[in-house]
Amino acid sequence: MDELIQACEKFKDRSYSIDDLYRRLSWVAVPNQFREVLLKAEQDLELIQFTELEDNWYEEGMKVVRNLLEDVGYTSL
Fold first, then answer.
1. Which residues contact 27 (CB under 8 A, 6 or more apart)?
2. What is the DSSP letter of 16?
3. Which whole number is the average pLDDT over 46-74?
4. What is the pLDDT of residues 60-70, one digit of tens each?
């Protein structure tokens, strides 16, 4: 879970682009009970890339990050 949180923090700090976050989430290891949550976040990020203007990617990506972290029980972001 540390890798997941670190990737989300890097996106929040703008160290990661939405592409970087998507790639990181696609290989991060999480317990099985969170696998579906992670897959949904990946799908949401992909949808943002194809349906939103690039200027909106960070704001929309942050919504995905907040939801993802809330769903896995991490609320410090």
1. none
2. S
3. 96
4. 999 999 999 99
